[in-house]
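yo

u said u wanted the structure for the complex thing, so here. seqs first:
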Amino acid sequence: KQEVTQIPAALSVPEGENLVLNCSFTDSAIYNLQWFRQDPGKGLTSLLLIQSSQREQTSGRLNASLDKSSGRSTLYIAASQPGDSATYLCAPLYSGAGSYQLTFGKGTKLSVIP
Amino acid sequence: DGGITQSPKYLFRKEGQNVTLSCEQNLNHDAMYWYRQDPGQGLRLIYYSQIVNDFQKGDIAEGYSVSREKKESFPLTVTSAQKNPTAFYLCASGRQRSSTDTQYFGPGTRLTVL
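structre next:
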């Protein structure tokens, strides 16, 4: 069974800093890996999707990398802003019971201090 | 205005009562999902449906039931058999025809058992 670990569980940084969030997963037989953002009491918003054949994906100040063989992904946030404060969840996609399924980590709660 | 809607946003239930959470999507997605999220935890899959009139149990289906009579709708019933139903419930939908397809999430329903 796929297990996903995210480190650190919480992170507080001053505005403007670059930061890295880490995600590891136990089963490397994945199709893709997604990073989501969740604001308090809200649903999830997809940030980046990296295919298993890709090494990285970029969107604005966000860059996600994937090392499938070692079961690791990182989300790099450049020049952090207070609006980046949220919980970030990673979720590898695998095939289970005839369908594509996501397994979620517990998330990293990010606070960017003005 | 396309998207996924969940209602109600907050729901209170007395012990021993069944309660139904609504999820509607107008994205023309075939697949729909129900997840449960507890504080500081990742999302856990309750049920999913890949097509109308068909659904499958996820990792924590006990004490829950669903129906998929229409493509747009995937209601979740939390029965009295669910021992610890207080949680945040998220509905999602997606095309899920290939590994490039992501899931889109609703705003969630917070259920509290009194």
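Chain A touches chain B at residues 4, 9, 31-32, 34, 36, 41-46, 49, 51-52, 89, 91, 93, 97, 99-107 (CB under 8 Å). The first strand of chain A starts at residue 4 and ends at 7.
cya
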